[in-house]
Here is the input.
Amino acid sequence: TQTFGIKLGLENTGKLLAALGLMPDLEGRKIIHVAGTNGKGSVCAFSERILRDGGLRTGLFTSPHLVTYRERIRVRGTLISEAAVAEILSRIRGLVFDWDFHPTFFEISLGLAMRYFCDQDCEVIVLETGMGGRLDATNAVKSDVSVITSISLDHQQWLGETIREIAGEKAGILKATVPVIVAELHPEARDVVGRCALTLGIPCIEVHPLPEEWELGLKGPHQRENAALAVEAACRIEGDRLTQDGIRRSLAGTVWPGRFQRIDDDLILDGAHNPGAASVLRETWQATFPGEKARLVFGVVESKDVGGIFEALLPIIESVTFVAVKSERRLSINEMKAALIEAGGAGIPVTESFSLPEAVAHSRQSGGKTLVAGSLFLVGEALGHFLGETYEVSLQ
Here is the structure.
């Protein structure tokens, strides 16, 4: 179904959810809906862990996956089984095979997830938008709490060329009677989201910082804001069943792969695939390894602001090894080299590799710390290679 591409809009999604009998089945289930440019997955992971540890039966829908498709759909932290995917997917195929407009990959994934969550009697469902918000398939589901994380430039060909336009798309998840929790946003984004909330007459809640002494399972200064968003969202869903000590333990135990993830002492993976995420990666690196530079293994897909990513990472780069990502949309090594030079990295030593394992092995032979970054496709390949069969266990 990926051949159908991306098709923003809610009509087909609504039709699919109705065909699966989901509208009555979703009654009484609480839903957290998370949109933003960066940090969505982390907020979802923190929220789900807090609510799961609080004794609720949770469903979590996120994207993209890194190693296995089943990562996108979890109940109480456990990945959906292959058998359940096959059974529900077969049901969906039977429903939609003769539709004039065939559902997209993402629409089918959402339908599969929501059917599974209802079949598993989830009390709370945490939904991460795929892209944007207003016309994202997840917006066809009525939520109880909306969350807007950081907003910066990404997916401009779909969402708009300015922060204000992109914020308008993200704010499209806001709904009447549903409170929205917001990060510390860019001023233009804050204005757009605030005006939308005012028009709808709903609370627009800015989160308070967490206590400094609270430890988080996800590394980087930016994760403190993501965790604060998650705490506020979880408490608004089920505040009576949550305790401060329990929330603190949940935040410390949260796992979310591919975000400044240390495989061992000298190998770090991070799926920074836009300038905003790259800036956060640089800050996290500098805070974690002060004075040290990274031997970067880098690959990315087209449509990304590669120059902006390199501009953000230049202060921490010692050398770069380029790898072509395993995707039809991969950017060529020559194109990535040109972007590095244009960003001001002409003096940085560069090598190229035909495979990720070869690139990492070469980088690690030279000493220092190796950073695999640029695309979640690349990070997913690295996780599959280095963790293998233990990867699924590591997600718990």
